[in-house]
Every structure is written in C-alpha cells, then in structure tokens.
TrEMBL record:
Organism: Trepomonas sp. PC1
Protein name: Leucine rich repeats-containing protein
Pfam families: LRR_5
Superkingdom as given in the UniProt entry: Eukaryota
C-alpha cells in the first residue's frame, strides 16, 4: 500500500501519529476521532492498527481514494460519505452506520465479516458499484443501495431485505438474500414485479458457488492424497537405498576382515 501511494516504510515509521505524508494520513492508534470533514489535503489513509471510527462525518467530502485499515471493525455515521474511495478492502469490518460509504466510486465490494448495518442509506448513490458481497450480513436496510444505478449483483444469502433497499437500482439482475419483503417505493424491481427473477438468479449463483467450493475442496483432497503418496514412495525409495547401503557395508566389513586375516 505505502509504495503505491509514494510513501516509504521509513517515512511511515518515523512519522508522528495523525501526521500527513505526501497526502497520506498516518494513524497508529486503535481508535480515531478527529474530524477531517471537507478537508482536501488527504487522499490516502494508512492505519494498520485502527479498529474503530466512531465519529460523525469524519472523512465526509474528503477526496480519499484508498485506505489501508486491515483491522477496522466499526465505521460510524457518514464517516466516508461522498468521499472518492475507488476500492475498499476491509476484511475485519463488522458494523457500519448510516451513510457510512454513501456516494463513493468503488465498483466491487466484498466485505466477508460485515454483519450489521444501522439505520439506512449505507451505500446509497455509489454510482459505479456493480457487485456487492457480504456473506455474513444479517439485514439489508431501507434505502441501503438507493440510486446505485449500475448495481447488478448482491450476494448476501443470510440477510433480510427491508423496503426501498434497491430503490433506483434499475440494472439489478442477481440477488442472493431472503427475498420475502414488502415495498411501496414504486421505483424498484420489487414494486415493478420483476424481482423474483433476481432471486432466481441469486439461487443459481449460490448453487454454482457451492459446487465450485465442493470442486475446490475435492481438488485439495486429491492433492493431499498425492502428497501422501509421494511421501510414501519417497520413504520406500529411502528404505531401499538404506538397505542397499547396509548390504554394501556388510561386504566392506567382510573384505576388511579377509584382508586382516591375510
């Protein structure tokens, strides 16, 4: 990450906490509550230990393109709303609040640890977003993806969908989620009677994923068996060589004994 944002490891190591180096904010704490709303001097954030962003509007309307926060678990109200995030790699993120990532530029999201979203509009108006996956998410809140006009795929098989969740999502094709919900926004595929096909594609997607996972597990098992076989074969070869060495040593001992007798 540092190399890609033109910051050396030495610069990051010696930088004071909450300092800015080449438009990269360096944060060394587990929690951060400073307000950077509408500032334009930060494009990147390097926060390897950060676990919680619990302030409001902390980086709202700040032109942040990328962040490095591998331990982040919580994102507060409108924390990154209307920023310029082009990608989001947050493997530990569990909880986000309202408008947390609204109005950003990322195209694809995979949030494997995300479980809870509070309030509404969590990812609304992300005009480039096409793919969203959160396998542990429990609920897709009202207006969560409102006006994500390019969104085609949502994979959240354990999530309950609330009303207006997909308002204005005209390109939606595939949804893996618990699809029994009511909506009266008159501006989504559910209200237009076309949502059932999205759920069917979602079920097909999950079935293929399960088959793929099974295939990968089967391949891993086969490789493990090959490794065991190779180890067994090698051990057999080692035993054969050891036996041959033993025979040669016996012959040498015999020859030495014969020479000594002469």
């Amino acid at each position: 990450f540092l190399k890609s944002v033109a910051v050396s490891l030495t610069q990051a190591s010696v930088a004071k906490n909450n300092s800015i180096v080449n438009k990269c904010l360096i944060v060394n704490d587990k929690e951060f509550s400073d307000d950077y709303e509408r500032r334009n001097d930060v494009n990147f954030i390097f926060a390897p230990y950060l676990e919680k962003l619990d302030g409001q509007f902390q980086f709202s309307q700040v032109p942040i393109q990328r962040i490095f926060m591998p331990k982040l678990k919580y994102v507060g109200y409108q924390c990154f709303s209307d920023a310029c995030l082009e990608e989001l790699d947050l493997p530990m993120l569990e909880v986000i609040s309202s408008h947390a990532f609204a109005g950003n530029k990322f195209v694809s999201l995979n949030l494997p640890s995300l479980k809870i979203m509070y309030d509404y509009y969590n990812f609304c108006a992300c005009s480039n977003l096409q793919f969203f996956q959160a396998l542990n998410l429990t609920i897709i809140l009202p207006c969560c993806f409102q006006d994500c006009t390019k969104l085609t795929t949502v994979i959240a098989p354990n999530a309950v969908i609330k009303e207006k969740a997909f308002k204005g999502c005209y390109q939606l094709e595939t949804v893996a989620a618990k699809g029994d919900f009511k909506c009266n926004c008159d501006d989504c595929l559910k209200c237009r009677g076309n949502f059932i096909r999205c759920l069917q594609r979602g079920a097909e997607y999950m079935e293929k994923s399960i088959q793929k996972d099974f295939g990968l597990k089967q391949r891993i098992f086969e490789l493990e068996q090959q490794i065991i076989s190779i180890k067994t074969q090698n051990q057999t070869q080692i035993d054969q060589i050891s036996s041959q060495i033993g025979i040669i040593e016996q012959k040498l001992d015999f020859l030495i004994e014969m020479v000594m007798k002469k």
